Design the sequence.
């Protein structure tokens, strides 16, 4: 064992003791003020606090072994510039007479006169009260108070010495300043001194090194580390002085001090030797065993400690250990914890002393904590014991399975069960595995585990486990696009909820919220929007805590999609923005954020904000409901937004490809199929096949559903089925279920029919109605897609005022408008050809690529070639930017 000078282990400076009244020889080292080592760090904040000792009769420096008490007071005493009587108390001072003989000699060494005719107590075992009176009276007569430091005062064994010391201190008045350096609170009536403001106290918390002080201490040992590294060491050691010094000494011998201080094994270090010798072995055998057993706990109360120690009387023993500063911290309300470094060392010692006992202690703790309702702590100890059947059962029976589904990737429970091995058996373990896989990487494996769990969940199984199984059934139905399965899970859950204690359901509102979310998503997939809205709205009314807040965001995202498909663009945007902003505590996207961003992307396309739409599509969070698994609703929304963006960019073939189903589902979704068909129809129209385009729209279910009926009408009109399209548009105009995103397109279908029939008055009125409906939500895309017939009507005075500021005029032509931070126009680097100018002119008239080709009697590919050349020469990448830049340069 290496002998080092730490805060309470120090070299003594010998002093010359002149011949004094006592006949018995003294140990001179007990009167020496300890010498400070070269690496000692003077801490002004503590020295300043100690200065109060000059004005108050009593000062107590009370801290654990190695906390730096002795050297702190020694440094302060050495800098006072006046004599300080120093006495180190030893356990050998059994009698009060011997103790007072040493006290008197310490005072004599500093020039403090003894009472006349007194050389010391005549009896080593006792002190005459008259002597104490004469000592107090002599001190009281001093003009300048004597300063007496009693180091290691907790070693004082004489039972009556503390009472005698308090008598002398009280009657000495201003003639004595007593400084006690101790590991435990002295047996003095401290309440009297505290109430009178006559005591200075410095305890463990104040003795602990700060990060800045620790950095300076390490620097004195030749170690200069980054602030984060020092902060980590201070957190691990609790700022304990001896621990920091011993770490510094060990790190000096390492080739990589920073790595050593970050990763050192406390159980095999000089720190372990110090604590085991100074703290653990100083206790009785029964107390040592108690400390070793509770070392597996982060915190504990007496009842929990007794469950591990198999003994009684623990409460008094813990209070005593705390009073002794034996690295047992009082957390209040009868809860304690060990100093983290001490606990770490004790665990290593426990494994060496009692191999195999640690798992048993963890399991005992897990059972006690579970019975007490402390489920998270019970799970941690169950996992540490390696009893996964118990641990999974505790999670499922507490209805806490939702934390594996809705929790963030860094959640403690998620990380804990990632360590569960394949040997764990039983329904609870299979439910946990199913939740983990359905919320993670492998849908097939998750469904298999769910099947195994249900085989082991007979009717006699606890309602909590069967309710957890119903939750996973709903999640599986959502992920596989099986609305019928989701409804069955919902029915089973409603029945089981009546069998589960109400307080348990109230404890985990996230389970109900998740169940409703999954059923709502399945209903959205089935196109049952009103039924979906009912359960999703119920999620928003669920009592909200940290765990249930995340399903709320998922529900908001689905409600945003329902509103978007119904044409309620503003409401959809508001709800999607709220859902997209949701984050886990660690900053990861929460469930629903991806779907919300996709809704916002679709809204951006409708507003002709194509760059924003592209950015939102790129940023959309993972495809699953909070994990990596594909969710049919989210993927269908991704396909819809992507296809619409590609159509707006003039690439219908790519749009048709993007609109295809990305995730296989057991049941087709009517609205997803409709939007796939719409994209295919647009591609056929672009390639000059109107009949094929019309056929692509046949056989779609629910063709009057507002979510896509207006677009079907639009596509049918373009494909040559005008009467059928107008009839559908008129039916939409007669309902109040649809919002502007639907009604504007339906109205434009009717306006185009009127215009082509030569009824410009009716067309103008319908167009005015469409503009009024679109203006609030800034829906530009329907007008851009309308074709050249609309341009002359929009420029007519009666309608021009309705377009100003958002659609036409004021620099806001459709597709135009420079975004914030966009570069100013670049000069045209090459003149446009005559044909390119013709294409550009028609582009400014809002004609599509197909309409330009027909008007110029050229192929679509030829028009695309001219457009690419126009974009290159104008230095742009989009239709709207080309028109704006051409106008800026006087080319239009």
Sequence:
């Amino acid at each position: 064992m290496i002998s080092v000078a730490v805060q309470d282990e120090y070299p003594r400076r010998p002093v010359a003791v002149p011949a004094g009244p006592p006949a018995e020889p003294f140990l001179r080292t007990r009167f020496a003020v300890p010498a400070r080592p070269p690496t000692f760090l003077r801490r002004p904040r503590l020295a300043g606090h100690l200065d109060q000792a000059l004005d108050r009769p009593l000062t107590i420096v009370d801290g654990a072994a190695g906390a730096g008490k002795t050297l702190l007071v020694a440094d302060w005493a050495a800098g006072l510039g006046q004599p300080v009587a120093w006495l180190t108390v030893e356990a050998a001072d059994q009698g009060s007479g011997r103790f007072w003989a040493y006290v008197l000699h310490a005072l004599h060494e500093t020039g403090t006169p003894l009472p006349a005719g007194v050389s010391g107590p005549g009896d080593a075992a006792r002190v005459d009260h008259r002597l104490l009176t004469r000592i107090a009276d002599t001190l009281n007569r001093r003009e300048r108070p004597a300063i007496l430091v009693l180091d290691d005062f907790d070693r004082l064994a004489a039972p009556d010495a503390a009472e005698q010391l308090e008598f002398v201190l009280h009657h000495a008045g201003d003639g004595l300043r007593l400084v006690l350096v101790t590991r435990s609170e002295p047996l003095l009536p401290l309440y009297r001194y505290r109430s009178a403001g006559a005591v200075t106290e410095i305890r463990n918390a104040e003795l602990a090194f700060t990060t800045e002080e620790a950095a300076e201490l390490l620097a004195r040992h030749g170690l200069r580390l980054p602030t984060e590294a020092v902060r980590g060491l201070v957190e691990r050691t609790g700022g304990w002085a001896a621990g920091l010094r011993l770490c510094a000494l060990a790190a000096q011998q390492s080739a990589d001090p920073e790595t050593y201080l970050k990763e050192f094994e406390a159980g095999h270090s000089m720190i372990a030797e110090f604590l085991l010798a100074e703290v653990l072995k100083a206790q009785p055998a029964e107390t040592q065993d108690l400390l070793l057993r509770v070392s597996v706990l982060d915190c504990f109360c007496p009842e929990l400690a007794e469950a591990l120690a198999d003994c009684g009387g623990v409460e008094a023993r813990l209070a005593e250990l705390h009073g002794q500063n034996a690295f047992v911290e009082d957390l209040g309300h009868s809860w304690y914890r060990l100093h983290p470094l001490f606990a770490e060392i004790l665990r290593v010692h426990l494994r060496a002393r009692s191999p195999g006992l640690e798992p048993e202690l963890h399991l005992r703790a897990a059972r006690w904590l579970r019975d007490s309702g402390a489920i998270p702590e019970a799970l941690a100890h169950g996992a540490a014991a390696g009893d996964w059947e118990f641990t999974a059962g505790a999670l499922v029976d507490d209805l806490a399975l939702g934390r594996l589904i809705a929790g963030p990737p860094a959640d403690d429970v998620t990380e804990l069960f990632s360590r569960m091995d394949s040997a764990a058996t039983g329904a609870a373990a299979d439910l946990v595995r199913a939740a983990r896989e359905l919320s993670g990487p492998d849908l097939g494996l998750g469904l298999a585990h769910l099947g195994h769990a249900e085989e082991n969940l007979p009717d006699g199984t606890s309602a909590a486990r069967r309710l957890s199984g119903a939750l996973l059934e709903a999640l599986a139905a959502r992920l596989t696009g099986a609305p019928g399965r989701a409804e069955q899970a919902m029915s089973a859950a409603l029945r089981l909820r009546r069998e589960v204690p109400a307080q348990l359901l109230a404890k985990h509102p996230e389970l109900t919220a998740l169940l409703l979310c999954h059923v709502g998503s399945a209903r959205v997939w089935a196109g049952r929007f009103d039924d979906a809205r009912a359960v999703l709205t119920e999620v928003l009314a669920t009592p909200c805590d940290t765990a249930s807040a995340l399903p709320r965001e998922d529900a908001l995202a689905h409600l945003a999609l329902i509103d978007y498909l119904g044409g309620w663009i503003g409401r959809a945007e508001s709800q999607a923005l709220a859902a997209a902003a949701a984050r886990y505590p660690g900053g990861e996207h929460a469930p629903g954020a991806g779907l919300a961003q996709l809704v916002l992307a679709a809204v951006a396309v409708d507003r002709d904000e194509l760059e924003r739409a592209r950015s939102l599509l790129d940023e959309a969070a993972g495809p699953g409901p909070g994990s990596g698994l594909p969710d049919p609703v989210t993927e269908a929304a991704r396909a819809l937004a992507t296809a619409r963006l590609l159509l707006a960019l003039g690439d219908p073939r790519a749009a048709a490809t993007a609109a295809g189903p990305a995730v296989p589902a057991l049941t087709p979704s009517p609205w997803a199929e409709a939007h796939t068909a719409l994209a295919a129809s647009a591609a056929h129209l672009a390639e000059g096949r109107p009949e094929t385009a019309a056929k692509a729209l046949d056989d779609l279910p629910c063709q009057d559903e507002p979510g896509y009926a207006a677009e079907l009408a639009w596509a049918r009109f373009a494909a040559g089925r005008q009467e059928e399209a107008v009839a559908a548009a008129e039916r939409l105009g007669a309902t109040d279920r649809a919002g502007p995103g639907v009604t504007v397109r339906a109205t434009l279908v009717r306006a185009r029919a009127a215009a082509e029939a030569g009824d410009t008055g009716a067309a103008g009125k319908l167009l005015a109605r469409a503009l009024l409906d679109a203006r609030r939500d800034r829906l530009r895309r329907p007008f851009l897609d309308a074709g050249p017939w609309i341009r002359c009507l929009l420029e007519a005075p009666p309608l021009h005022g309705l377009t100003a500021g958002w659609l036409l005029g004021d620099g806001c032509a459709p597709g135009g408008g420079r975004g914030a931070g966009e570069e100013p126009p670049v000069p045209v680097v090459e003149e446009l050809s005559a044909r390119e100018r013709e294409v550009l002119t028609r582009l400014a008239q809002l004609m599509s690529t197909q309409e330009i080709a027909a008007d110029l009697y050229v192929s679509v590919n030829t028009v695309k070639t001219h457009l690419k050349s126009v974009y290159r020469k104008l230095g742009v990448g989009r239709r709207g930017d080309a028109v704006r830049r051409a106008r800026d340069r006087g080319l239009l």
